[in-house]
Amino acid sequence: MAPPPPPPAGSSAIDALQFLSTALSQRGPYALPYAEETKWLIRQHLVSLIEAYPSLHPQTSSFTHNDGRTVNLLQADGTIPIVFGNVFYNIPLSIWLIERYPLSPPSVFLNPTPQMVVKANHPHVDRSGCVHVPYLQNWVYPASNLVDLVRSLSQIFSNDPPLFSRQNPNPNPPPNPIPSPSPPPNASRIFSSLSPYASRLQGRMTEDANEVFRRNAINKIIEAVHADIAGLHKAREAEIEGLFAIQAELRRREQELACGIREMSEEKEGLEQQLQLVLMNMDLLEGWVRQNEGKWPHEFDVDNVFQPADVLSRQLLECTAADLAVEDTIYSLDKAMQEGSIPSDMYLKNVRALSREQFFHRALETKLQAARVQSQVTSMAARASHYAS
Q1: CB–CB of 187/85 below 8 Å?
Q2: Cα–Cα distance measured from residue 150 to residue 146, given in angstroms and rounded to the nearest whole number
Q3: Which CATH number fits domain 13-207: 3.10.110.10, 2.40.128.20, 1.10.150.20, 3.30.420.40?
Q4: Which residues pair with 88 in a beta bridge?
Q5: Residues 58 and 78 sit within 8 Å (Cβ to Cβ)
Q6: What CA–CA distance (Å, rounded) separates 138 from 144?
Q7: Mean pLDDT throughout 271-277?
Q8: In whole angstroms, what is the distance from residue 200 CA to residue 204 CA?
Q9: What would the pLDDT profile of 220-246 be if each residue is shown by its tens digit?
Q10: 367 vs 35, 50, 315, 352, CA distance in Å?
Q11: Where are the beta strands (DSSP E) in the chain?
Q12: Is the peptide bond between 102 and the residue preceding it cis, with omega within 30 degrees of 0?
């Protein structure tokens, strides 16, 4: 399917709407590279622009980016009116809707005829005809639109026209043109009257000073509002970035809490298992107590309740008890020394004697443990030889 032909210049908004509906619904190699969710808004922006400025008409054409890429895009081509020296002129330009429109601002280029030249060192137009105005720099979706853009361009170019006729010997307009029914000599030749894009409107109109002041005030208010919106947009972006950072921190803490809860659950399960084991042992002890209740005399010697199994065990028990007794005695002497109950010389004398005694107990305990281990090894070897035979 071939791309639809653009509507002729001066066509109605209905013809432009039909053209835009067909162009935006194209598929295949002639499909326009706009997002599906923005095509309806793009059509509305262009229709509103054509209704407000009939001298502009939509069409599709190839646009070449700075990196050499060529893409088929929508553009609004034609002229926009300006007022300079109380005379209406038309500025020829093209408004290109790039791929990310309306999220990103359009690109605006002047279309000077061979009889025109771009004003050197213009504050808003470079030598290639590319337009840079505050409205484009402060473009904010979805508040910004094409109608307000053209209105801003008309106001800026009325104050400082970007195009002049090549026949004009003095390309710089008067700094402060005086409003009058007749245009100044140089201003009358700003554009070539023979150019189809720079024809004057029929008649020379004189505007009321109050109307001019009102329009200028409205444009300044609009620019201030756009600047405020851009500032709010940047502030909201910073706030969103902060919220994203807080969200990431909360997610990290959520993971830490989940890990802690998982560890506590595992620890709880381990404690429950230990509790079950303790309860089982307690039941065994209670059963033993019930079975043996009444079999033991009411009064018995606590020291003789547990009897060592052999002579080595008895000696080891006595050495361990003596070692612990000496340890308790030394601790008591330390407390007495700290409280000042005994003199230091007596403390040192007793500690020296007790330490010597404790050393012999521990040395004997070490020998008894070694002998016990040797006895167990010998017993195990004897049982192994008995089983082997």
Answers
A1: yes
A2: 6
A3: 3.10.110.10
A4: 83
A5: no
A6: 9
A7: 94
A8: 9
A9: 888 888 888 888 888 888 899 899 899
A10: 91, 111, 11, 23
A11: 56-64, 70-84, 87-97, 107-110, 116-118, 163-165
A12: yes
pLDDT score for 105: 92
Asked whether the CA dihedral 374, 380, 386, 389 is positive or negative, the reply is: negative
CB 133 within 8 A of CB 160: no
Indicate yes or no: pTM above 0.70.
no
101: CB partners within 8 A, 6+ apart: 34, 38, 42
What percent of the chain lies above the pLDDT cut of 90? 35
* Helical residues (DSSP H) of 119-208, grouped into ranges: 134-137, 146-159
Give the pLDDT mean for 16-36: 84
What are the structure tokens assigned to 363, written together? 């040395």
Neighbour tally for 341: CB within 10 Å:
12
Question: Confidence band (pLDDT; 50, 70, 90) for 264?
Answer: very high
> What sections of 310-343 are H helices per DSSP?
311-339
Q: How far apart are CA 183 and CA 14, in angstroms?
A: 37
* Average pLDDT over every residue of 70-87: 89
Q: With a cut of 60, say whether residue 186 has pLDDT above it.
A: no
In the numeric block, which tokens belong to residue 129? 């005809």
- In whole angstroms, give the CA distance from residue 213 to residue 106: 29
